From TrEMBL, chain A:
The keyword Protease does not apply. It comes from the Bacteria. The keyword Cytoplasm does not apply. Keywords: Signal. It comes from Jhaorihella thermophila. This is Polar amino acid transport system substrate-binding protein. Residues 31-254 form the Solute-binding protein family 3/N-terminal domain. Residues 1-20 form the signal peptide.
From TrEMBL, chain B:
The keyword Membrane applies. Belongs to the binding-protein-dependent transport system permease family. HisMQ subfamily. It comes from Jhaorihella thermophila. InterPro entries: AA_ABC_transptr_permease_3TM, ArtM/GltK/GlnP/TcyL/YhdX-like, MetI-like, MetI-like_sf. One of its GO terms (cellular component) is ATP-binding cassette (ABC) transporter complex. Pfam families: BPD_transp_1. CDD domains: TM_PBP2. NCBIfam families: HEQRo_perm_3TM. PROSITE patterns: ABC_TM1 (PS50928). Keywords: Amino-acid transport, Cell membrane, Membrane, Transmembrane, Transmembrane helix, Transport. The chain crosses the membrane at residues 20-42, 78-102, 158-178, 190-216. This is Polar amino acid transport system permease protein. One of its GO terms (molecular function) is L-cystine transmembrane transporter activity.
UniProtKB/TrEMBL annotation, chain C:
GO terms for cellular component: ATP-binding cassette (ABC) transporter complex. It is a multi-pass membrane protein. Belongs to the binding-protein-dependent transport system permease family. HisMQ subfamily. Keywords: Amino-acid transport, Cell membrane, Membrane, Transmembrane, Transmembrane helix, Transport. This is Polar amino acid transport system permease protein. It comes from Jhaorihella thermophila. It is found in: Cell inner membrane; Cell membrane. The chain crosses the membrane at residues 29-49, 61-85, 91-114, 135-160, 188-211. It comes from the Bacteria.
Length: 257, 226, 219
């Protein structure tokens, strides 16, 4: 009996070490594999040398620095954010990911680290100035985003799902609206100024009626120690003033209310 | 590692996916139809010898070279965002149709050239000497033989068009792959959704090949093999 | 709005180098996949032609690779591998899928090549005292190679172009690189034009050379 217990204890110990969490994995590997969306200026984009930069990229680097490991930036599209975590190809995703209860069935979320509002960029020829003007217009958004889901709910009420266009990336949404494929594209308040400044054919559109997007850092669902660490990281970024510093640098004014 | 499969949402989405498979078939069939017409025109244009027809010949040569030497996905992007820069805007459906038709035409042009070469010119002369009109000789002697020579490559191209239409998912078309992606992005159960899509594609392709074989049997059974 | 950070920057000379590097990535990915796929495919083709017992398994199996869109194969494999506890980079995953895909195509061609050399001819070679291996090497290989060479070149070019699909896994090959540049510069037509030129330069010389070669062999 004793021997059986001992064997059980040993095998239990074995399985415990085999279940080392992401925090240990990252430290052992000496690399943090960090997913970021890079077509979402100013939160994630590429500088003129094609190197990743932006608010989320800085957060990746800060987290790696806190862990004292190297950082590996993995560029992802909106739709690839959660699969990156589910399949274990990345340790963490900083990608303006809204913390929906639906998604929380699949991945784990930290406390929110940034807040966005959904806002339109509209083609100058579209004549859109208010939310109601969107009726009967061709609307573009990025596949796999919360704004997409929210818009489809409204479109369904209006019976206009056929007017929706889903694109792979935020950038394709901007291009589609700028080129006139779509009349308006859904993005966030943070991206609007940069995009409107870039394209002559675009202008700032209406805010969307749904509530603000609280976005969180994404990690494996079952890995509570890792999520704890991420919570602490997010909290300390705010306390240390780093959050304000980076937000001011990339987005400009402190977050709108 | 999260390796629990959740199949229930996929099964619930199955009717949508099957409906999307019909979009796939429609897009592929339409792009083949356009491809066949354009391919025939290109095949003939390439063999123009008159100096006045040189521009048409060069257009055909360039078309075939570009269609065959650049990736289909590149061609789709070109028709999508490339042409958009010139203010030519197409819906996702039009982009995929244009891209696939452009590609199909480039490949089919070569197929048709081979097909026409398979029928010796002497047969035409023989048919005329038997008292047939040119039209009769074309429809009864030449075209059936050409059709038989190109039937197999034509079937292959149709299968290829079905497979290529999956690129529609990258330009926002909700054909089978696009619909699969849209559905999968809601729950992020990528593997399950795409596995089911793979099975549907397989069945569609098999049915197409089977149908083409049956049709070939109906069309050509009176013919002794060359 | 602070003006210290610029989000969109124009196309620079260095970006050509960026695209050239990505073209090199395309070349690496396709060359490796074609090499592995051809070796594997020739073996499978030989089994199909010579070991009839393998056909009931191999034929439907290889058929799957030719009947499911490559993009779906890529997404499936890339999402499946981590489930069995393996970590593969986009390059490695792309390589595996492209190799399998190429192997399925080559197997069909290789089988046709071997079968194109008639049994009587091979029997004649054997009756001249050649071993099976010798007959294969000196009779079947040179004759079969001629008949299937154009088809093989077609596969090579096909795989090279299809490697563009690995961009969906995030590997920065030519097409993904052009997307990155389009995002940054917003000059879609120009960037796509340059990328297209790179593809054309990779593909066209090979198809031109093969067409010439084919003509010479046919004479």
């Amino acid at each position: 009996m004793k021997r059986i217990l001992l064997a059980a204890a040993i095998s239990l110990a074995g399985s415990v070490t085999a279940l080392a969490d992401t925090l240990d994995d990252v430290i052992d590997r000496s690399t943090l594999r960090c997913g970021v969306v890079l077509d979402f200026p100013p939160i994630g984009f590429r500088d003129q040398n094609n190197e990743p930069t932006g608010f989320d990229v800085e957060y990746c680097k800060d987290l790696a620095a806190a862990l004292d490991v190297e950082v590996e930036i993995i560029p992802v599209t909106w739709a690839e954010r959660l699969p990156l975590i589910v399949t274990g190809r990345g340790d963490v995703v900083f990608g303006a990911t809204s913390d929906t209860l639906e998604r929380a069935k699949t991945v784990g979320f930290s406390i929110p680290y940034a807040v966005y509002f959904a806002q339109m960029v509209v083609n100058k020829n579209s004549g859109i100035t208010s939310f109601e003007d969107l009726r009967g217009k061709k609307i573009a958004a990025a596949v796999g985003t919360v704004p997409e889901q929210e818009w489809l709910k409204i479109a369904k009420q209006w019976g206009e799902e056929g007017n929706y266009q889903g694109y792979q990336s935020e950038n394709e949404v901007f291009l589609a609206v700028a080129q006139g494929k779509a009349d308006a594209g859904i993005t966030t308040n943070t991206a609007v100024p940069a995009v409107v400044a870039k394209f002559d054919t675009l202008e700032t559109g209406p805010r969307m009626p749904w509530q603000a997007d609280y976005t969180s850092v994404v990690g494996p669902r079952h890995d509570v120690t890792w999520l704890n660490y991420l919570n602490l990281f997010v909290s300390r970024q705010v306390r240390s003033g780093r959050y304000a510093e980076l937000w001011r640098k990339y987005v400009g004014a402190m977050h709108p209310t | 590692m999260n390796s629990n499969f959740h199949w229930r949402p996929v099964l619930r989405a199955l009717p949508d996916l099957i409906q999307a498979a019909f979009v796939t078939l429609e897009v592929a069939a339409l792009s083949m139809l356009i491809g066949v017409v354009l391919g025939l025109a290109l095949a003939m244009a390439r063999d123009f010898t008159a100096p006045a027809a040189a521009p048409a010949r060069w257009l055909a040569v360039a078309w075939v070279a570009l269609a065959r030497n650049t990736p289909a996905l590149f061609q789709l992007y070109f028709f999508g965002f490339g042409l958009g820069a010139w203010g030519i805007n197409m819906s996702p459906l039009a982009i995929v149709l244009a891209g696939l038709s452009f590609n199909n035409a480039g490949y089919l042009a070569e197929t048709f050239r081979g097909g026409f070469r398979a029928v010796p010119a002497a047969q035409m002369r023989a048919a005329l000497s038997l008292g047939m009109t040119r039209m009769q000789a074309m429809t009864r002697i030449v075209v059936p033989q050409v059709l038989r020579a190109v039937w197999h490559p034509l079937t292959n191209q149709m299968v290829w068009a079905v497979l290529m239409s999956s690129l529609g998912m990258l330009v926002g078309l909700h054909e089978l792959a696009g619909e699969t992606q849209a559905q999968a992005s809601r729950t992020f159960r990528i593997f399950e959704y795409f596995a089911v899509a793979a099975v549907i594609y397989y069945v569609v392709v098999k049915l197409l090949v089977l149908g083409a074989r049956l049709m070939a049997w109906r069309l050509f059974r009176g013919w002794s093999p060359a | 709005m602070s003006n210290t950070v610029t989000y969109f920057t124009g196309f620079r000379g260095a970006d050509l180098l960026f695209l050239a590097e990505a073209a090199w990535g395309t070349l690496k990915l396709s060359a490796l996949s074609i090499a592995v796929g051809t070796a594997l495919g020739v073996g499978l083709g030989w089994m199909l032609a010579e070991l009839r017992a393998t056909r009931p398994i191999l034929v439907p199996l290889l058929d799957v690779f030719r009947s499911v869109p490559l993009i779906i194969q890529l997404v499936l494999f890339f999402n499946f591998v981590p489930m069995i506890g393996l970590g593969l980079s986009p390059f490695a995953a792309g390589c595996v899928v492209l190799s399998a895909y190429a192997a399925a195509l080559v197997a069909q061609v290789a089988r046709a090549g071997i079968e194109s050399v008639g049994r009587p001819l091979r029997r004649a070679a054997r009756s001249l005292g050649m071993s099976y291996g010798q007959a294969m090497r000196h009779v079947v290989l040179p004759m079969g190679l001629r008949t299937v060479f154009p088809a093989w070149v077609g596969i090579v070019l096909g795989v090279m172009k299809d490697s563009s699909l690995v961009s969906v896994l995030g590997y920065v090959e030519l097409l993904r690189a052009s997307q990155i540049l389009i995002t940054r510069t917003q000059e879609a037509l120009f960037v796509l034009g340059v990328a297209g030129a790179f593809y054309f330069l990779l593909s066209w010389p090979v198809s031109w050379w093969a067409a010439r070669h084919e003509k010479r062999w046919q004479q």
